């Protein structure tokens, strides 16, 4: 079955084509990007007003942070308690601490977490790390075909939980310190179960200023099959961007695209495919991440 949806005007024009029953990104026609439902996600980027509320401004965030999620919990924070969440302490002052928070089995996936005694919490990945890194392919809900949350949310929730603050009570915001003029970012996902190909179409309007085009490619063996290397391909317009040939339980690769691979004003087909014969034992996924300024 195919599912198509579009965001027109100043928003990205997307048509998601669903070839399996799960994980499709689509947008209701004539709505803006922040109304994406199912597997598409759009986030507004809002500059945090640290300088207006804190005695000391963490300027190192401007120097080190990339994509970020932040909140003020509305009360002071005991830094000694907050520090217990960290896998590793990276920086400590009398006013704030910075450390890494475990959000995956791999330390390479840890999010950085800034905590200020005046109530601010920021989870982030560093400058130069792609937006697509926030996607954890294990955070799907296959029963609802939705991405339940991203890794920045997981890190923030771990911190607020130890501080006794329900995450559902907080109004969080996103910001990209590397691209201060960006006001939106988007994650678009598609998956494939077994042999074949799934794809979505994407057109980026010419009136957007695009700062980053990133991707993530995923392959997972769902039942411990070790008979042979499985194969998965991530393509744009039929051109292979990245392939996975492996026999581990799961593999995630990610990177960035050059402008020529995802040109504005042109319709592109983004696909994930596999020709591995043991088709029912594997799950594959691909996502595109965009950071941009919308007029």
Report how far the terminal alpha carbons are from each other.
35 Å
- Give the class-level CATH name of the largest domain: Mainly Beta
Q: Helical element count? A: 4
Share of helix, binned: under 10%
CATH topology of the largest domain: Jelly Rolls
Q: Spans with pLDDT under 50 lasting ≥5 residues? A: 1-39
pLDDT averaged over residues: 81
- Specify the overall morphology: globular
Order of strands, main sheet, comes to 6-7-8-9-5-12
Tell me the strand percentage band. 35-45%
Order of helices and strands: EEEEHHEHEEEEEEHEEEEEEEEE
CATH architecture designation of the largest domain: Sandwich
* Count of DSSP strands: 20
Question: What about the largest sheet?
Answer: 6 strands, antiparallel
Secondary structure category: mainly beta
What Rg is obtained from the alpha carbons, in whole angstroms? 20 Å
Question: Topology of this protein?
Answer:
Blueprint (H helix, E strand, L loop, with lengths): L12 E5 L7 E2 L10 E2 L2 E4 L5 H4 L6 H5 E8 L6 H4 L5 E5 L3 E6 L9 E6 L3 E7 L13 E2 L4 E2 L3 H12 L10 E4 L7 E10 L2 E8 L5 E13 L8 E7 L2 E8 L3 E7 L10 E8 L7 E12 L2
Antiparallel strand pairs: 1-14, 2-3, 4-13, 5-9, 5-12, 6-7, 7-8, 8-9, 10-11, 13-20, 14-19, 15-18, 15-20, 16-17, 16-19
């Amino acid at each position: 079955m195919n599912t198509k949806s579009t965001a027109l005007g100043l928003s990205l024009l997307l048509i998601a084509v669903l070839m399996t029953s799960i994980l499709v990104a689509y947008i209701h026609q004539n709505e803006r990007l922040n109304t994406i439902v199912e597997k598409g996600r759009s986030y507004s980027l809002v500059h945090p007003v640290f300088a207006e509320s804190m005695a000391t401004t963490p300027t190192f965030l401007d120097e080190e942070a990339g994509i970020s999620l932040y909140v003020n919990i509305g009360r002071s924070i005991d830094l000694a308690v907050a520090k217990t969440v960290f896998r590793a302490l990276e920086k400590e002052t009398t006013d704030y601490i910075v450390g890494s928070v475990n959000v995956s089995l791999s330390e390479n996936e840890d999010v950085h977490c800034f905590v200020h005694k005046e109530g601010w919490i920021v989870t982030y990945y560093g400058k130069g790390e792609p937006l697509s890194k926030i996607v954890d392919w294990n955070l799907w809900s296959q029963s609802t075909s939705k991405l339940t949350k991203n890794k920045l949310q997981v890190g923030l929730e771990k911190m607020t939980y130890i501080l006794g603050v329900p995450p559902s009570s907080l109004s969080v915001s996103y910001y990209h310190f590397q691209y201060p003029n960006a006001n939106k970012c988007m994650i678009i996902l598609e998956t494939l179960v077994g042999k074949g190909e799934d794809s979505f179409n994407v057109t980026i309007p010419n009136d957007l200023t695009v700062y980053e085009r990133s991707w993530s490619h995923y392959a997972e063996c769902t039942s411990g099959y070790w008979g042979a290397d499985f194969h998965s391909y991530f393509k744009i317009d039929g051109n292979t961007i990245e392939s996975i040939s492996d026999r581990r339980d799961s593999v995630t690769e990610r990177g960035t695209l050059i402008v020529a691979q995802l040109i504005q004003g042109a319709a592109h087909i983004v696909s994930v495919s596999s020709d591995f014969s043991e088709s029912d034992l594997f799950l594959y996924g691909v996502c595109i991440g965009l950071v941009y300024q919308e007029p």
